[in-house]
Amino acid sequence: MLQKIYDWIDERVDVTPIWRDIADHEVPEHVNPAHHFSAFVYCFGGLTFFVVVIQILSGMFLTMYYVPDIENAWKSVYYLQTEVAHAQIVRGMHHWGASVVIVMLFLHTLRVFFQGAYKKPRELNWMVGVLIFFIMLGLGFTGYLLPWDNKAYFATQVGIEIAEQVPLIGPEIKTLLAGDENIVGAQTLTRFFAIHVFFLPAALFALLAVHFLLIRRQGIAGPL
Amino acid sequence: MSEKKQQVSRRQFLNYTLTGVGGFMAAGMLAPMLRMAVDPVLKPSAAGDFVNVGLAVEDITTEPQRVDWLVEQVDGWYESEVSRSAWVFKDENDNIKALSPICKHLGCVVSWEGSEDYPNEFFCPCHDGRYYKDGTNVPNTPPLEPLDEYEQKVENGMLFLGMAKPRGEA
């Protein structure tokens, strides 16, 4: 049945070459854990992406209940934690996944670093990777505020004060982040929500696309 | 692989196991999310509490009168008081009737004798929907069903109303 549907589409649109280009490629022996078990380190990048997919999906579902408003943010989180079936699990995935992403990203970076895989001609991809790392830190920072509990509030207050230490434009950065010169409040929360849910993910998708295009274009670095 | 036995080839086996394990993992990941999303549909519908609408039974006449009252509404994490309305009267058998004013056509609000052209009827101004006094829709006007009727009870001579239910369920 599925085969028939696929054939029907393929006959008209010829999709096979498209997905072959994306998905059908040789895995070099030195990257295949079946040949050398230590090659599992090559999985870290893919695993990072897998966790990112979990983050995106669980985040999408969380926004079905979450409200980015100082009156209701905490209440809506409390409601979904206590009243909505399985929402606790989904928020748990998002909460713990956020840390797992950073850990996996770090492992992936270590692998690339110690294997020297960032060297010519792959310097560009290393730079894109570093940008992705910054985006991830941004996602972690902005997402931390959203439950609007004490921990979130004071962590953000401290984070914004750290940003304020930037020479010359510190105060402006603070205002830009918080949405107000003095208050960490209503405007901060909506800002962080918008950044967390729209701006940073958009940047992340673009950078991930470049990251993957480059790796397909240049191939995986050779064996040590 | 022998040609006679038509065994599962190595490639097929790997395909099946990978798809199976992958599918299992994906399902484990997606199941809580989907369950969370459909939760409102699966929640038991809240039984409406009866609320004193502030109308003594002895004040109910055969002429429909409009009563407005407030009910506590819990909407997820948001609790509020919302107003409800009913047209209350005694029918020819001395039974109390409390009709919802929500038109069954497209949800406008009907009034008793809301149009001078149609005495003794409920009238909806939006599309000239009409109902007889007992709430039955007048044939060949937009509404296709009778007005909803409130669940009711009488305590200490006061009228208590619950949820509005379609005719026959109240």
Q: Can you describe this structure?
A:
The complex is a heterodimer of chains A (224) and B (170). Chain A is mainly α and 224 residues long. Chain A has helices spanning 2-13, 16-23, 43-62, 73-82, 87-114, 123-145, 150-164, 170-178, 186-218. The longest helix of chain A is centred in the C-terminal third of the chain and has 33 residues, at 186-218. The relative contact order of chain A is 0.10. Chain B has two domains: 1-46, no CATH class; 51-165, Rieske [2Fe-2S] iron-sulphur domain (Rieske Iron-sulfur Protein, 3-layer Sandwich), CATH 2.102.10. Chain B has helices at residues 10-37, 39-42; strands at residues 51-56, 65-75, 78-90, 96-99, 111-112, 122-124, 129-131, 149-155, 158-165. A three-stranded antiparallel β-sheet of chain B has the order 1-9-8, with no helix packed on it. In chain B, strand 6 (122-124) and strand 7 form a beta hairpin. Chain B starts with 9 loop residues before the first helix and ends in a 5-residue tail after the last strand. The mean pLDDT of chain B is 88. The A-B interface holds A 54, 57-58, 61, 64-65, 72, 75-76, 78-80, 83-87, 89-90, 93 and B 29-33, 35-37, 39, 42, 76-78.
- Give the beta-strand count of chain A: 0
Supply Rg of chain A: 21 Å
Number of helices of chain B: 2
Which pair has the most extensive contact?
Answer: A-B, 20 and 13 residues
- Major sheet of chain B: size, sense and barrel closure? 3 strands, antiparallel
Percentage of β-strand residues of chain B: 25-35%
